[in-house]
Amino acid sequence: MRAPNAVLRTNDTLASPKPIATLFILMNPDSGAGQVLLSIESASVTFGPLRAVRDVSLNLRGGNLLGLIGPNGAGKTTLMRAAVGLQPLRSGVVRILDMPLDRDRDVLRHIGFTPDTPPMYDDLTVRQFLQFIGMGYGLSASETGERIDFWLEKVWLTEKANQRIKQLSRGMRQRLGIARTLLPNPSVILLDEPAAGLDPAGRAQFRLLLANLRDQGKALIVSSHILSDMDEYCTHIGIMSAGQMIRLDTVAEVAQSAHGDRCRYTVVMAHPVAQLEAMLGRLPKVSNVQADGERLMLEYEIGREAAASLLAELMKLGLPVASFTANAANLEEAYLRSQIRQVD
Amino acid sequence: MAFYLDNAISWAQFRLRGGWRSLLILAACYAAAAVFFISLPYELEDLQRGRNYVLEASSTLTLISQVVMLLLLGGMAVTGALRRDVANRLIESHRLMPLSPVQAIVGYIAGAGLQILTLCLVNLLVGAVLFRMRGIPVQAWLISNGLLFGFSMAIWTVMAMAAFVSRAIFGLLLALFISIMFSGGFIFVVVPGLLAFCSPMHGQTIFDLTMRSTLSSGTVVALGAQLLLCVLCIRGAARKYADANALSLTIGPALAALGIWAGLSWFGIYDFQNLRPRMLGYVHFDWRLLVVGAIASCLLVAILPLAAAAWSDILRRQRRLEGDKIPSGSGRVELCLCVAMLFVLTPLTSSVNSAIVHPPRFAPVQMNLTAGQRLATTRGQYRYVLPARSPSYPLPVIGIRSVRVVPQMVAAVCAIFLLQTYLLMRLLYPAIRRANALILFIIAVLWFVPLFADVIYYGIRNQDPQLDAFALYSPLGAMAQALSNPVPGTWPGIAAQGTLCLFLAALFFIVEFRRARGFPTSVGMSSDPGSSLGFPLNL
């Protein structure tokens, strides 16, 4: 996991009774990282009576890669659309490079956004579509040509350059969508579910690409449900629920803090044991026991001594333990323990 | 051509239609087909007279194909391009580009219409050759095509704006064409604004192919209105392009559109005898039909600024209820209603032209008329004489003062209608998603059911239908009465309409009070007036 170079201060937490989450990422002045590229101040978005985003604030500097996670309907996509000006704000301000988004259209040159299903002209070829994008951003023909070659190579679409877009698979379209976003070389990049539809090799390549962009000093926000990937390339994680940013911190702190003084253990038995859950539920300090055939998950105190003590208790009960693992702190654990419920 | 190469949207639209290769092949095939189908009968004809007939028929057919291509196919191409991009959210991708919204809209119009424009250029060249062969100056052909092009651009921009709001916009254009054709031009009588707006397209205009450099006053007015409408529509479409949730016509531009329409309606009545399409023949129309039709069409157009005012008030009110400290915006609706009233009543004054109230009798051109007895016409077959100047028609000619018009009745009917509509919008917009359809339905019921009731009432009694019983409860019937000697029941009829308005006002205040007290009266008001409210009330 990449060591974050940012210090986070939050004035709202999960336990806060206030409905408003106001969170700031402030770079450590000694880190030498870039300027604030994206600033969202008290952004709220409503759809009639529904408040899709509630008073969210954040500052993103060059080199920050914020991973947005949360259940469906949490407001991640709406927040990203509001950040690029596609969704009108009910209140609040979005600034790109310190320029208000709604004042100057030229500021749009610095923003790149890929929605979950990137829209495209299906009857154009891949190259023609990217030429069109280059024209839209006022790039010269030669510059556009160079950039098209560069990005098609980066997203593994060079061989498809002259194919019509309607002939591309979903994953290829997703990669083309990313190329479209990156073609104008924006400073602020927002990607909504970019890895959806990518094959394993594509995902690995994509992770490298994101890390590369982050290291170039761009500010990125990526929304995804693939948490195992996100702790590889993100510097920060924002957890959203019901339109609020309920947690915003570095990846390490989010993963660690959610763990607290408890740890989830996975135990595999050599063969199924009758009434295992009831048996283990009676053990002191053991909680959240979930047995599924020979596989067992439970929560116990964190630490090596505690793990040894738990294993000894299991042995005392005469259980046929085939494997015993203390799960490491990770985003998925943190997210599952954050008690966020799925929106119906 | 530099425009096409610089504007990304027009470039993409051009590419989507096959680019240069497709364009050149299509143009060449079309030109070859046109030359073949004109030259074949021409060569087969032995007599010079027959050949002249072939050339004349070909000229007219070429112009008709220009009309079909420019108005129908071109309009369809522009609407289709925009609707496709709105539906598959490509517009959102375009919004992220640093391209000005006006540039983008012009790009859509130019790019989507390029193939059609190329075919029309072929038609223009073919027509010019035909004129040359007929020995007629090509100038007339060029002017006709210029007027047609201007009219088409106005239609394309209207359709571009409406494409953001309604999926059925092309169907509406087609329905308008069909209704003009099948009504034999009668729709121009009922909607005099349309008569003036379309004046280059009917009567002694482009289809005569005899126009010279001097344009008639009707054509000049129509061109001016088309230009203004183009500006308003491009601005409106650009607003929708930049923000899907924005109203394309806010109160100011919507009032401007109403002003343009009221002016056109006024001119359509005032100059009716010059503008009237030839397909109407000698049929005499009661001037009240024109005036009531003009005011009714103005009332319908007045719904645009009212919808904008209502929507802005609803949003303002909602935000105030949620605790935002924003000004109440008081006075804007009242001002909007007053200006709308002023414009709506404008057509009433057109009856100062005595020829409207007391229409002239048509006389064959061979009649020996003095210059003073003639009104200027182009090269029509018939001219008419003013009855005032002719001792044969000793009718009083003082326009509106010569008949017992009761303008205060008309004003009351219009004011009541505008208030009713505004209250309906305030009540229904926050409550239901497809409010406009319901509002239009209610308007149709209020306007036409009492008229039909009179027709049935007199039908049962085997008498000629009169608009003096149930019709008085309809704004149309009451206005028709107010324009002549009103029957005694007219004021009570208007009072009944006013009572309905008072009922709506009471209902509105109750609902507003409940909303202020926190009662849940809203059932999912959309933040997207364009898509949820639909065409045409909330363009």
Strand content of chain A: 25-35%
Secondary-structure element pattern of chain A, one letter each: EEEEEHEEEHHHEHEHEEHEHEEHEH
Q: Averaged pLDDT of chain B, please? A: 80
Strand runs of chain A, count: 16
- Distance between the first and last residues' Cα of chain B: 32 Å
- Computed Rg of chain A: 23 Å
- Strand content of the residues of chain B, in percent? under 5%
Cα separation of the termini of chain A: 33 Å
Given the C-alpha coordinates, what overall shape of chain B results?
flat
Average pLDDT reading of chain A: 82
Largest sheet of chain A: 6 strands, mixed
Q: Largest sheet of chain A, order of strands side by side?
A: 8-9-10-5-11-12
Topology order of chain B in helix (H) and strand (E) letters: HHHHHHHHHHHHHHHHEEHHHHH
Question: What class, by secondary structure content of chain A?
Answer: alpha/beta
What is the overall number of helices of chain B? 21
Strand order of the largest sheet of chain B: 1-2
Please explain how this structure is put together.
The complex is a heterodimer of chains A (344) and B (539). Chain A is an alpha/beta fold and 344 residues long. Helix content of chain A is 30%, strand content 29%. Chain A has helices at residues 76-83, 126-136, 141-154, 170-182, 200-215, 227-233, 251-259, 276-281, 304-316, 331-337; strands at 6-10, 23-27, 36-47, 50-61, 65-69, 91-96, 99-100, 111-114, 188-192, 219-223, 236-241, 244-250, 262-269, 287-292, 295-301, 321-326. In chain A, the strands form four sheets. Chain A has a six-stranded mixed beta sheet with strand order 8-9-10-5-11-12, with helices on both faces. A four-stranded antiparallel beta sheet of chain A has the order 4-3-6-7, covered by helices on one side. In chain A, α2 (126-136) packs across α3 and α7 (251-259) crosses α10 (331-337). Chain B has 539 residues and is mainly α. Helices cover 67% and strands 1% of the residues of chain B. Chain B has 21 helices and two strands. Chain B has helices spanning 2-6, 8-16, 19-44, 48-87, 90-95, 101-134, 138-163, 169-182, 186-190, 192-197, 217-242, 251-270, 272-275, 287-321, 332-345, 354-357, 407-428, 435-460, 475-482, 490-516, 529-533, and strands at 362-364, 382-384. Chain B has a two-stranded antiparallel ribbon with strand order 1-2. In chain B, α4 packs antiparallel against α8, α6 (101-134) packs antiparallel against α11 and α19 crosses α20 (490-516). Chain B is flat, with a radius of gyration of 26 Å. Chain B starts with a helix and ends in a 6-residue tail after the last helix. Residues 362-402 and 519-539 of chain B have low confidence and may be disordered. Chains A and B meet through β8 and α2 of A and α2 and α5 of B.
